[in-house]
Please model this.
Amino acid sequence: ASGARRGVRYMANGLKVYYLPLREMAPLGVAFPTFGLAWLPLFRHVVLREGVTVVHGHQATSCLAQEALLMARALGLRTVYTDHSLFGFADLGSVLINKVLRFTLSDVDACVCVSHTCRENLLQRARTVPPDRCTVVPNAIDPARFRPPTEEERRQRDERGRLVVVVISRLVYRKGADLLAEVIPDVCARHPEVDFLVGGDGPKRELLETTVARHGLE
Model:
């Protein structure tokens, strides 16, 4: 469910959104884990009503996605899982998530990762996934929005003599904020003409601010 919404919402291009009456864990806005017991009848009803043949689950920390994969396999449907974040192996949250993935992905038909690094990370965390079932599909971009600089833009950049690296992200471990904090001082030391512009917020913001202050990169 989403707020007071219930039932089916009809969107553009024939898209349907089903709002299931599941209790949310506020303020996270995610479903409370029930191992599928609370909404298996609803899931089965949607699958039969829409003639679903493939179920796609996204995000390792989504209870809804992991339970849907399990129920889909129990109903004989094909399953695909997409992973786009990097998790560790030592902190408590990562240990728990990795154990869940080893169970839920043990017989998934295919896994999709957004990079080769993400693929290697997933294969190490969810050891039950055969490598031949894990494929890399990079995030899509609109090439029309990216173009080489014009001669005038290149001339202006050369006059300024600065190269700006822009990072827009949630400042969390899974997004590589720790790696960014290590890379910035090294890059700036080797290439004084490089500036970093970081946009975002999260628990690793303090780490980045401390790194900037320690190395005098304000």
User: Anything to note?
Assistant: The chain is about 35% helix and 20% strand. The two ends are 44 Å apart (CA to CA). Residues 171 and 201 are 5 Å apart (CA to CA). The beta strands are 7-10, 16-19, 24-25, 30-31, 54-58, 78-83, 110-113, 134-136, 163-168, 194-199.
